[in-house]
Amino acid sequence: MAERSPAEIAPPLAAALGAGDIDALAELCAPDLCWGPPDDPQSGCHRRDEALAWYRAARDRGMRAEVTEVSVGTSALLVGLRVFDVAAGQRPADGAARFQVMTVRAGLIADIRGFDDRSEAAARAGISR
After folding, report:
1. CA–CA separation, 15 vs 10, rounded Å?
2. What is the pLDDT along the chain (129 residues), one digit of tens a residue?
3. Total domain count for the chain?
4. Is 86 helix (H, G, I), strand (E, B) or coil?
5. Residue 7 three-state SS
6. What is the rounded distance in angstroms from the CA atom of residue 78 to the CA atom of residue 68?
7. For residue 73, what is the domain's CATH number?
8. Domain of 52?
């Protein structure tokens, strides 16, 4: 299979995140995926299996994410999410806005960094708007 660009990864990524489909998400991620806060290489997850286990556990506890945007940068995606807890009776409108910058290398998501602020996330993803 040819390497996918960030633009090619964006639609299946949005679908996987929106559906909570961990298996579909796994197909888009590199085995050595790192995931965590910005500028902190020590915290977070350091393998695809770790990151997917975290997503699976959150989903099993009732956490959901509504995808609000997927913007394509040169080598990264800016993913906007509204995160909410269905176990606590929340709806998407009740959720917190979060942003992830997903860096694509060799056709797979290789790094995910979480942000509370869209402007900061957009700058990191190389997106001007």
Report:
1. 9
2. 578 999 999 999 999 998 889 999 999 999 999 999 998 888 888 999 999 999 899 989 999 999 999 999 989 999 999 999 999 999 989 899 999 999 999 999 999 999 999 999 999 999 987
3. 1
4. helix
5. helix
6. 10
7. 3.10.450.50
8. 6-125
